[in-house]
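Quick check before the chapter quiz. The format below is the same one you will see on the exam, so make sure you can read both the input and the output lines.
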Amino acid sequence: MNPGASIELVKGIGEKTAQQLRAGGIHTIYDLITFLPRTYEDFSNVQSISEIQPGNITIKARCEKVSTRPVRRGMRITTATLADETGKIQAVWFNQPYREKQLKTGEEFLFTGLFEFTYNRYQLTNPSAEKTADVPKTAQQLLPVYRMVQGLKVAQLRKLLTQVQPLIGRLAETLPQRLLETEHLMPRGEALQAMHFPVSAETLAKARERLGFEELFSLVLASQLNKKEIAQLKGWQIPFDVRVVKEFVAQLPFQLTNAQRVAAWEILQDFEKQSPMNRLLQGDVGSGKTVVAGLAARQAAHHGFQTAIMAPTEILASQHAETLHRLLAPFGVSVSLLTGSVKGQARAAIYKAIANGEVDVVVGTHALIQSSVSFAKLGFVVIDEQHRFGVKQRQALLAKAEKLPHLLAMTATPIPRSLALTVYGELSISILNERPKDRKDIITKIWSPNSRPQLYTLVDEQLAQGRQAYVICNLIDDNPENELKSVQAEYKRLRVGEFVHRRIGLLHGKLKPSEKEAVMKQFAAGELDILVSTTVVEVGVDVPNATIIIIEDADRFGLAQLHQLRGRVGRSGHQSYCYLMVSSSKAPSKRLKEVEKSNDGFYLAEVDLEMRGPGEVYGRAQHGELNLQVASLADSKVIQRASRAAERFIASGEDLLHYTELAKQVSQYQRLTTLN
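Here is the expected output.
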């Protein structure tokens, strides 16, 4: 056997097991060895039933009786009586009906879980159950737990790993020896051995440190190599013209913030370089990213270059086009909107104008990357909410230029420092962390459903002063199986209930583009007092007179999404309010309390990363492909260590190809994280 050999060469693996392993992504012995545990059960402190106290416990027991019953559609509860020589205890599992068959065998199990007082009794909730006979007799009794592989039991996986154990320690090293010594890291073979067959918590911690460091080192090195390669590319040089910039700033109906001035200066300096700009403009909601992009587009147009701005939704693209037309029309800069709802002759006319260079700035959705779109001289590309687009979509737009254009990626979801060093490491970063001077902090308050009448009184007082309100719901259609408020039902309820005397509009994703646009125009024009909507208004909708947002079932939204929705108000000098209506009278979650206490998106981004992981910020599809088994993108200390190590490696001039496995991983990350 060797690591690259087919999984079928392992003793005990027949055709059926091989098929199951391949379905789980395990094709070779090496794949099996690097299929790491997701967690560990610690059986070092097994208590008898008579000793246990509320909290996390481990007991050794047999099942006396077990049954499963349906409680409502889609939910089944399995309850069991567990017993040892000292007493008995109740255990309950939610939606794990297979437990009944497992426990009926009468064998002895180690149960680990939370012992708590709930439903008027003490019980063990959702415990894991490991057959005592399957638990190896190691020093600390640390038992690896693996993610499910189609149809395979965890005990089978453990046996297969025991078969290949002699190979694990002999695996080739992937990191340079000098790096291992500098960072005091365990050799790779030893680390993998300790992950699968842990003998102590200390050794396991060192193994996790080693393998996690390698994952982050590969990711950071990929970003830094991308940055180095981009710096060697040739792009368009767009000279800085101070007169053009001063004229643009002078005609603005407001003063630029200092952060906007700095960001614009950084972009205009990048324009002058021979290599194409690769910059991320991250700004909190309402910080004025579109104005900065508009200033740069004005400079590009002055020198005969076209700008393409791609946004993820039609509403956001329309909003950008309207804002940019207002900013650029006084200088004779033409702005066109190209989305899926532009059809027939109008679409053909836009195609022709773009190809002839008659349009200076084209704002659009995915429609911009269609093969029919051809630019005369594309010099500047802006991708808004860039994490919503895949690598291929971003590159398809850049490929429409004769030379690689300058790229500005924009995001209203502030990026935590640790992500800025890893998945965004190849980008230069500009930050807008100031709100315009006339803006007040939004007052945010959590409300219980019992206090709804008082809340509606407050809202009606604001509407009486001429202000407007959003009511955000989670679903479009009313669903009797789900207590979440639907936007249709809430719209009907408010029209005949508390706000029967107010003008109310309805907005959701199932409306035709023309219908959405009509509703938004009505709301923006002040012809509606209340807009009942789904999260389609999450980004880009700018109605300065709207000062109230009620978010129904706020506890069902992510932290970043709540902050984005709150950003729909507070866009003028009027005091604005965000009311978080929870779905029950239970104590509010930590997530809601954080949103209530802080308006700072950069602070909330760090909290979000800590609580929910990087998928929320980076984009779920891309994050899933990173395949980090050990490292955390929230671990800023290890990321900084890995970043310094990557810089030293590049500076040393050492050939990455000497380390085959490392080079393969770095190459994959380079393709995955690149924007340009």
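If your answer matched, good. Residues 222 and 668 are 8 Å apart (CA to CA).
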